[in-house]
Every structure is written in structure tokens, then in C-alpha cells.
Specification:
This protein has 495 residues and is of the alpha/beta class. Helix content is 37%, strand content 20%.
Length: 495
């Protein structure tokens, strides 16, 4: 069967492609930038169609010859624009589907509470509306409605994980006692994959959830038990609004306030399945749906083994990699600040690349750890992402991966790694590492920091932080080279 996956750079989409290929389907993906899937392990096995999901022509082209389309798109807009953009994307897709030979649409939405749509958060209301708009296409549409998804790398799981691990005692909002029905990502992917073969007359929404109905407070206590932690002291109080709660989550967890806020608003109301009708067409697996404890145990094992296929951070923030790096041929001028450091080493280009590619996350930034942590904390205080997002994999990067408050914009091993800053600042910044082989077998590392200021505030920001660069950039380049030389010695000793 020929399947189209939208949102293939996202948490669920990136994993679904792998499952569909394993099931023997032909897969096509629609992505804004083909470079974002270039490093995916399945990239060579899929048909990549470049284009924006809001462009009717691109969507129509992506749907040509497709039997089943997976709609996994979610807008990056915030506030009042969220619902407008979500509806626009869904309408564009429905119109294009109507004019295609498509046989089925499969959509993953949210498990809405039993309240009026007016009382729902904008985030949840938009999920419901998108399902309605997709059905206007006239194409049989299966909408799966899920609550909290438990899996390594999901935003919900990361929020749960960091709140529980970092806070042995906490004062929480009362929403921690709202009932929910978490489901393992493994079971979500199973439903999505098997739905491709549903009969043509199945055209409806299905609630999907795991085998247990529990509160968020119970999830934290059970997570602690599975993770080998002491029971948590949790005191729910009715004093934290969703806005304040999202600030609290943003400071404690890697999930920034912009993403935490809709998650928190969704948790205010019970989210429990009202039916399990999907079992008529897709029976539960022989061993049953994964329990919460089993799902947490599996997720933690994936994290320990550095086997996290995708993360919630995979979806890029607005204004990103398609914009030219200042200094490229497309650069049109303006004030530009750079900091360039060059160091030569006897280590090979491969060893030097290995050291460069480990940057960030648990490895750190090879210099001035305290200054990096202070900058991360400052970013969190103004609503930025901070340093806590870490990395998907401690050793290997892909284009589009997050590295703390940077994102991989370009990766050409073993010669170039370029990171684009996603911290809050009055301008835009890049950090680039170039490796050049030397005639004697060694290598040269060129480390370049680039800053494009925005107006007077941007210039003031650069000159305010410039004194600290002496403690950050020279030792960073030097320690990267030292790490590469240590790797070379270790490899030589092992042979």
C-alpha cells in the first residue's frame, strides 16, 4: 500500500515511517526541507516530496498515487493564531484529498474531555476541529484520540520524568488529581499502522488509551517506583493557574512554557476513553496493551541505551533553517559579529569529528560550564528553552536535532557541523565547526560563532556578552581538540 506521512520530522511521524516500512508499505513523506530527514535511518527507503503543508499545490503533488494519508501536522503558532493556522492546514489538506484518488485519511488527535468546545483550551479545541475539517473531504477518515502518550522522547513523558526526578517534594496545582488514561507510544504506533488496512466503511473517531485510568499524581509516584526513586511528597493546592503552572513546568523540565501551557491546560479536565470500539477492528495485542509501569520501564531503557528514535524537540521552532547563514552568498549585508578560533591537532579528522559531534547534552560545551548554565537559566526566565532539552543521542546528531538551546542546521561528516541558536536574544546566532585535513594526517578545527544583531538592542547585547567570550570560545576549541587527541590515544591503545 502507498502511504503518505505528514509531520515526518515530528515525534510520532518519525517513528511511524519506520513502522510502515517494516509492515511492507511504500512510504512518501511531505517535508518543508528534505535536509531535515536526510540523516533519518529510513531516508533512503522513502519518497521525499519537498513542500509546505499549507501550499495546495505541494499537498496535491504529495497525494498523487497515494492510498492512505497520515495527518500528523500541528501548528507552531501560539495564542489566537493557533486555531486559525490549524484550521487552514486541515482545510488545505481536505481540499487536496477531495481531488485525489486517496482511499483513507488517518489522523492522531487528542482525547477531548466531556465539555463544550467553548470551555476547552484552544489547543484541545483545535484538535477536535481539525478532525471535523478532515472529514469534510468526503474521504473515509479515522481519527484516533489519545491522552498522555508515554514513550522515550515524548513531551508528556519528559514533563513527567523531570518533575518526578528533580522534585522529591512539590506543591502542585490541583490538576495533578485529574484522571487520565495514558497510552504507550508502542500501542499508538500499532493502531496507526494497522489502521491502513481498515475496511472502507470505517469512517469515525476512536478513543484510544492504555489499560489503566490514573491521575497525574499517581503517574509521578509510579514513575518514581519504576525509576528506583523514593516516593514523592506531593501537596496539591488550588493556587496555581494554568499560566503559572506552565511557568513552573518550564523552569523545572526541558519542556518550554510555550509547549507546557497547552499540555497543562489539557490536564485540567479528565481525559478518559468513553469507548474501546477500535477493538472490533484492531484487537488488543496477545499480551494486552502496555501498562503504565511497563511503558515507563521501556522508555527509561531506551534512554539508558541511547536508543531514542525521535523526540518532541524534532519539530523546529518558527523562522529557521531555510534562512541563510550570514556570510553565505545569499547574505545581503548589515552588521555582523563573528568570533573565529583555529586550532591544529595531530588527531585525525575522524577523531576530531567524533569530539565535535558529542558537544552539548551530558558532555557539555567543553568550557565555562557555569557560564553556560547561567545563560540557560536566564533563557528559561524569559520564556526560552534553556539548556535542559539536552540531546536525543549522546554520540550522533542528525540535521534538525536539538542540542540544548541550539538546533543542528547542517551536518556534513566529517567536515562541518553548524548549530543555530534557539535561545531568546535580540538577534540570531550560529555556532559552526569546520574540520580540514592536514597533509601530515592531522586536522585543523575552525570554530566560528556568528551573530546577526537586531536593531540597537542586538548590538548592545553583543557588546554586553563579549567580555565573557574569552572564557567560552578559546577553551571550547582547545578542549575539543584535547578530547579528539584522547580519543586517538584510546583507539591506538586498543589496537
Amino acid at each position: 500500500m502507498r502511504c503518505l506521512v505528514t509531520g515526518a520530522t515530528g515525534y510520532v511521524g518519525g517513528r511511524l515511517v519506520r513502522e510502515l516500512l517494516a509492515a511492507g508499505h511504500d512510504v512518501r513523506v511531505l517535508v518543508r526541507s528534505p535536509d531535515k530527514v536526510r540523516d533519518m535511518p529510513w531516508a533512503a527507503s522513502v519518497d521525499v516530496v519537498p513542500g509546505d503543508a499549507g501550499d495546495p499545490v505541494a499537498v496535491g503533488k504529495a497525494l498523487e498515487g497515494i492510498d492512505v494519508a497520515y495527518y500528523l501536522l500541528h501548528s507552531l503558532q501560539q495564542g489566537s493564531q493557533l486555531e486559525v493556522e490549524e484550521s487552514r492546514l486541515a482545510t488545505t489538506f481536505a481540499d487536496a484529498a477531495r481531488d485525489s484518488s486517496l482511499r483513507r485519511i488517518i489522523y492522531l488527535g487528542g482525547l477531548a474531555p466531556e465539555i463544550s468546545t467553548e470551555a476547552m483550551s484552544a489547543h484541545m479545541r483545535s484538535r477536535v476541529v481539525v478532525g471535523q475539517l478532515l472529514r469534510t473531504s468526503g474521504i473515509p477518515t479515522v481519527e484516533f484520540r489519545a491522552s498522555v502518550i508515554i514513550g522515550s522522547g515524548s513531551a508528556s513523558f519528559e514533563m513527567l520524568r523531570y518533575l518526578t526526578e528533580r522534585l522529591p517534594a512539590m506543591i502542585t496545582p490541583r490538576w495533578v488529581r485529574s484522571r487520565t488514561q495514558p497510552i504507550a507510544i508502542r500501542d499508538v504506533l500499532r493502531y496507526l499502522t494497522l489502521a491502513a488496512d481498515l475496511p472502507a466503511d470505517v469512517d469515525r473517531a476512536f478513543d484510544i488509551g492504555g489499560p489503566e485510568v490514573i491521575t497525574y499524581e499517581q503517574m509521578m509516584q509510579r514513575y518514581a517506583k519504576v525509576a528506583g526513586l523514593q516516593p514523592r511528597i506531593i501537596l496539591p493546592l488550588n493556587v496555581l493557574s494554568p499560566g503559572l503552572s506552565s511557568h513552573w513546568v518550564g523552569l523545572v523540565t526541558p519542556v518550554p512554557r510555550a509547549i507546557a501551557k497547552p499540555l497543562v491546560r489539557s490536564l485540567r479536565h479528565p481525559a478518559v476513553c468513553r469507548e474501546h470500539d477500535i477493538a472490533q477492528w484492531i484487537p488488543d495485542p496477545p499480551g494486552g496493551l502496555l501498562t503504565f509501569d511497563d511503558a515507563v520501564g521501556l522508555a527509561l531503557r531506551r534512554i539508558r541505551e541511547a536508543d531514542v528514535a525521535t523526540r518532541w524537540t524534532g519539530a523546529s521552532t518558527p523562522g529557521a533553517s531555510s534562512d541563510p547563514l550570514p556570510g553565505d552568498p545569499q547574505w545581503s549585508g548589515g552588521t555582523l559579529f563573528t568570533d573565529v578560533r583555529t586550532v591544529e591537532t595531530t588527531a585525525s579528522p575522524a577523531d576530531l569529528w567524533q569530539a565535535v559531534e558529542r558537544i552539548g547534552g551530558e558532555t557539555g560545551w567543553y568550557s565555562a560550564r557555569l557560564l553556560w548554565e547561567v545563560r540557560g537559566l536566564m533563557d528559561r526566565m524569559v520564556g526560552g528553552v534553556g539548556l535542559r532539552r539536552g540531546r536525543r543521542d549522546p554520540n550522533r546528531l542528525m540535521v534538525g536535532d536539538v542540542v540544548d538551546f541550539w538546533r543542528v542546521e547542517e551536518r556534513l561528516p566529517p567536515t562541518l557541523l553548524r548549530l543555530r541558536a534557539e535561545m531568546k536574544m535580540p538577534g540570531r546566532a550560529w555556532l559552526e565547526f569546520t574540520i580540514t585535513p592536514l597533509a601530515d594526517g592531522g586536522a585543523r578545527l575552525t570554530q566560528r560563532a556568528v551573530y546577526w544583531p537586531r536593531a540597537l538592542a542586538g548590538n548592545a547585547y553583543w557588546w554586553a556578552v563579549t567580555p565573557f567570550h574569552a572564557f567560552v570560545f578559546p577553551p571550547m576549541a582547545r578542549h575539543i581538540v584535547q578530547t579528539a587527541e584522547e580519543l586517538a590515544r584510546t583507539r591506538a591503545a586498543a589496537t
